[in-house]
Amino acid sequence: MPVEIESPVLEMRDVSLKLRRMPVLEGVNLELAQGDFLAIIGPNGGGKTVLLNVILGLLTPDSGEVKVFGMSPKRARGRVAYVPQYPRFDPTFPIRVIDVVLMGRLKRGLVGGGNPEEDCQRAHAALAEMGMADLADKQIGRLSGGQLQRVLIARALAVNAGFLILDEPTASLDPQIAGDLYARLKSSSKEMTVIVVSHDIWVISHHVKTIACMNRRLHYHQSKEITEEMVETTYGCPVDFMVHRHTHRVLEDHHEDGAGLEGVHDTEPGGPGGIQGKPDPEGESH
Amino acid sequence: MLEALQSPFFQRALLAGLLASVACGIVGTYVVVKRMASISGGLSHAAFGGVGLGYLLGINPMIGATVFALASGFGLGLAYRRLRSSLDTLIAMVWAVGMALGILFISLTPGYAPDLMSYLFGSILFVPVGYIWWVVFLDLIIILAVLLLHKNLQAVAFDQEFAEVMGVPVDAVLLVLLGLASLTVVTLIQVVGVILVIALLTIPAATAQQWAVNLRHMMIEAVLIGAFCTTSGLFLSYGLSDSYGINVPTGPLIILIAVALYGASSAIHAVVAKSPRG
What we know:
The complex is a heterodimer of chains A (286) and B (278).
Chain A: E1 10-19, E2 22-32, E3 37-41, H1 48-55, E4 63-68, E5 80-83, H2 97-102, H3 116-129, H4 145-158, E6 163-167, H5 175-188, E7 193-197, H6 201-204, E8 210-215, E9 217-220, H7 228-235, H8 241-253, H9 262-267, H10 272-275
Parallel strand pairs in A: 3-7, 3-8, 5-6, 6-7
Antiparallel strand pairs in A: 1-2, 1-4, 8-9
Helix pairs in contact in A: 3-4, 4-5
Chain B: H1 8-33, H2 37-57, H3 61-82, H4 87-108, H5 116-121, H6 129-158, H7 160-165, H8 170-192, H9 197-209, H10 215-244, H11 250-274
């Protein structure tokens, strides 16, 4: 997909949004270039999912400007792929894995279109990339949580978009499966621009290029460092003992590649209650 | 029992039941997986308001029913996207207002409304010839819509938000779905009546869902189950009347057969799901 060099993949200027008269986003600025891989962390109810919904054009901000590939989010539809928070649909829905992945090949317009052969090929390729090729004909209700999550990522990869947005893709998975999933995602998305919202800070810190903290305001310094200031303004809570335990566990699990965790270790971002909580309840409310 | 087949009334009823099962199975499948059963119930009761208006104005009550069902279908379709939280209450209101208007209009109509009961409980044995052609027409519209729009209908039913992000015009797809549901509901009123429409639309599809691997299978199974229910309901009511002199309306029998089938299917499904190979 050709991307004009001059327009960044994502441009957000001074974006603010209130939902039910509560400020959810305040003066958010964010710019992403092609190939960026950004993780957004922050407390529950901090507006992470809302931010994604604004980028996807599912919510319209009260003020500020959002441009995706230099266009309004609604016009950019079809060029952005999306992995929603699990679970969003009924597991008893009678549908096979491959048909779910094929939804990543949907076209704009009422009747749609597309080349069935090419769509099928891309869908199978995306499934294979997530290591799920042999489950193509399986009923989605029969998949485990980890398999289902991989199907949703395969569906997003099948879009073949330049910009991938993931909302808590690993919230329901254990850390090892989550780590494996990010590794697969990273290798499948080399050319893509990626935003991932996650609580699994120690897992994603291996794989992303930059990290931002979100609590109504977005704290982002185009780096992977999480400064004490970012943590304080984002979580607004002192670091407690639990963090040390988790941080040490992280370093033990991943000591062969600990460099990327320095920011995490030095600054001890928030309590695990804040970081690894339940899926953002606010994300369900729209 | 087979001599029933020689009666033109019975033949027409049989044909009407089979044709209605096609519409009912296909549209019912989307209604069930999109969890729009209560909307369909609202539509059929709103349609009763149209029946009443038809009486009052002296036009064919089914025309009034069609207009009311379509209008409330589109109205609820728009509300479905914008008023998620209060939708349930709104459906209940449309449901009740439809009935209230129907009763009010009929009471204002001079004279006696002789076949009012047929709209409440159906009268498949007395379908007019024109009805058969109407159901043929409706079936063709539904099949055409599904052939053209199935991908989008499935996507919106499965994961509306993702469909929207992909650029699928979700509002338009929902309106098509509710338009088809409205027309189907009006059609089924003739078979089982306003009050039981929701059951005939959803029970065969819900039974099919227990076994189907995809929506296409679910539709085919739902059509076959619907056809079985209407046919056996017809034979049962004919047999009861012929052999025992018991005259019962066919609509409720059709529904009870459908529910019995659903119960049996659920029990078998539970056993199969527990067994190791399931």
